[in-house]
Amino acid sequence: MASLALSASGVNLNKAVSGKFDDFRGGFSFSFGSVTTNDSSFAKKRNTAIVSIATQPPPGVVGNPRTGKNDETKKLAAWTSVKQERWEGELTVEGELPLWLNGTYLRNGPGLWHVGDYNFRHLFDGYATLVRLRFENGHLVMGHRQLESDAYIAAKKNNKLCYREFSEVPKQDNFLAYIGELANLFSGASLTDNANTGVVHLGDGRVVCLTETQKGSIIIDPDTLDTLGKFEYSDTLGGLIHSAHPIVTDSEFLTLLPDLINPGYLVVRMEPGTNERKVIGRVDCRNGPAPGWVHSFPVTEHYVVVPEMPLRYCAQNLLKAEPTPLYKFEWHPESKAFVHVMCKASGKVVASVEVPLFVTFHFINAYEQTDEDGRVIGVVADCCEHSADTTILDKLRLNSLRSYSGEEDVLPDARVGRFVIPFDGSPNGKLEAALNPDEHGRGMDMCSINPDFLGKPYRYAYACGAVRPCNFPNTLTKLDLVDKKAKNWYDEGAVPSEPFFVARPGATEEDDGVVISMISDKNGEGYALVLDGKSFEEIARAKFPYGLPYGLHGCWVPKKSP
Ligand SMILES: CC(=O)/C=C/C=C(C)/C=C/C1=C(C)CCCC1(C)C
Ligand SMILES: CC(/C=C/C=O)=C\C=C\C=O
Ligand SMILES: [Fe+2]
User: Fold this and answer.
1) How many of the other CB atoms lie within 10 Å of CB of 117?
2) What's the confidence (pLDDT) of residue 176?
3) What are the helix (H) ranges across 32-120?
4) CA–centroid distance, residue 445 to ligand 2 (Å)
5) ipTM, interface predicted TM-score of the complex
6) Residue 122 labeled ligand binder
7) In which residue ranges of the chain is pLDDT below 70?
8) Cα gap 331→359, rounded to integer Å
């Protein structure tokens, strides 16, 4: 059992933070909260530790009733709309940032959950808030800014929801308008372009914010967070939706386009410097009325792994004005679950197996298994698996996230689900926990790996786990998938965002680097946190001028060499 001691040092942000504000003025009811930076008791309030979850008694978690809008009370900022349109300034760093850490960590996520007096219902509905941490020679400059999607601009202008978000549908004044809106749904015109899920750094240097609608692909300037315009796909592949998480490397962009008419998926590839996706191949669904939801998928060095989850897109739910318990999806256990493997070079499906039922948002990584002669005999694919329980989707409703009492254990169990897909023609693949889920408190999501190990055998992953009771993953967790152990960082009452691994230039060991996260703490404040990739101990933190909303996924933009 490990329960490591705490360290603390003070900071007075009144002196430390030099910030630039750009108050939002318009039809939106943003509150113009003044920035509360004078908090010399910050250090005293600190209570963080690396804990062994299996042996630590569950700590109390602070209550969190929130409205959709900001107020000045000190509550968790994670589920609260961002205070203002933008801010930029240097932060005071406690501890020491490695001097090799030069570049920008960008994080995207839904950060504004109301239009006028209307409050959105689901975490995924919020308008995209971009946060930028620029690391330079031991210094850290933070900036945040709203993404200027058409959906956001229209909401600001008209003071009402104008596009279909994840769970929200614009209200129509009359029957004719209702019919018009439905027609626009089929053409895609009424779908949101609110690219609030992730942000990727393409091999050609462009930085693109993404969501699950294809029109929600928006180019930004990583230095200013300016919205530069739509990323227009120049091909004629059509379709309205894609996986929220493409696989992006210096040499390619791979994604899946679900086909809702003839259930299946197109596997497509785009080269740096182009906007044209080319088809690698097509996977036909094995069963069910529609393709399974593909929020993400993994790749190995030579194969694309296509999951067919029994949580399937649902055309009827798409047409409904009010959200259903599974939103735009439907659970079809009778349709079973499958995993398909496509060869990247030939587009041929080399394996298609039935697997146990599963629910996942995020794949972690995948790799090839070889025999003693080096022949590929199968693939292993790991994901954050929610025990085939779809209730996780409804647990991400803002009411549920905001109304946590701190006492009940609300978060459904999750694990590192490891698929083993044989290439020998067997009809079934395996799905088992890669390590005992008690190692990470049976919470598991929001993962990253060392990108040099993408598609290759790997040992370490970073994710969020749980110290229970809780209603959302509340630890940063380093998973050792070889020793089957986890190290957990925990700050009582806080919500950390996805731990993002940045490798030290020239590193030869997989975990030689740092892990960056942004924390919403129980006092309503927040800070950037940098952990050592190996020891998983804190090496630096920097307090934000005010707490920021929860963010989903990020990317690293290395500093350009002069
Ligand atoms: C934030 C996140 O992780 C997921 C966002 C998903 C969105 C915005 C999905 C939107 C959709 C529609 C507006 C209609 C079509 C179906 C679907 C792709 C779910
Ligand atoms: C926040 C989340 C999914 C985000 C998608 O991009 C999942 C959280 C799961 C909790 O266990
Ligand atoms: Fe995601």
Assistant:
1) 9
2) 86
3) 42-45
4) 6
5) 0.96
6) no
7) 1-74
8) 10
